[in-house]
Amino acid sequence: MKRVIIGMLLMLAAVAASAEVRVAATVPNMGMLARVIGGDAVDVTVMAPADRDAHYLEARPSMMAALRRADVVVAVGAELEVGWLPAALQGANNPRVQVGRTGYFEGAAHIELIEAGAAADRAGGDVHPAGNPHFYMDPQRMAEVGFALAERLGRLDSDNAERFLENAERIAAMADERVAAWLERAEDVPGAVLYHKDANYLMRLIDAPILGYLEPLPGIPPTARHLRGLVRDLDGRDGITLYTDFQPSRGADFLERELGWPSRQLPNQVSTTADDAEEYFEMIDRWVEALASVR
Hints:
Helix content is 44%, strand content 11%. The protein is built from 10 helices and 8 strands. Helix 3 crosses helix 4 (85-92), helix 5 (139-156) packs antiparallel against helix 6 and helix 6 runs parallel beside helix 10. By secondary structure, the protein is of the alpha/beta class. The protein starts with a helix and ends with a helix.
């Protein structure tokens, strides 16, 4: 009898585990959002490392394996993952998570994107005609995506639909509470030169000026000519250079030598295991503090 009871308990545990919605998130920020919204009702695998540029990854067997098991893929969208996600989806051969199915979710499809409408011409660099995909640097837009994700997860797990919505409301309230403090902290900052357009949403959110980009065109590495032009245009002004932990320091170092500007290298993704919103908000805090350090 004891063996029978143990067997039944193990079977029930297996059923409970399989009841979790299996999520394959493309990048750590989307994985964090899925864990915050889904709580213990989801099992999240993040496919892209936190310290790599999601534009330029290649489809790998580990990505295909995650997608093969998944009930839903949670992507950024707006072609951020276009270089690898379609190939990984094809290799996974999982009909549940193909484009157009309930199990395919793109955050960018549920919010208003900035910088939309660029011509799809590679002569202009790594352009995104649908709009700037880096909305995850704006916590309020992330909260909007959170509500859409809660609705999608609720379609896959109706028993927890109300809880998913409550979690989305919670992260939205946290974002709204912090924005006021960020605006106050960043008031009258001189602005920053960015490496890429990956912090544009945050700069717009806190009304901080963008003074230029180290890239001459999106996705094109800094050139000596372009950097000299930045120095000429910014000579005599105050500011800071901000770039991410996967972008090279060469351009920022040049501006520091020529203009005397400080520079900061900062993450724009949380860790792959982040399971609450605090790590995400702390990441945004670091960007705001860097901007506020120059007055």
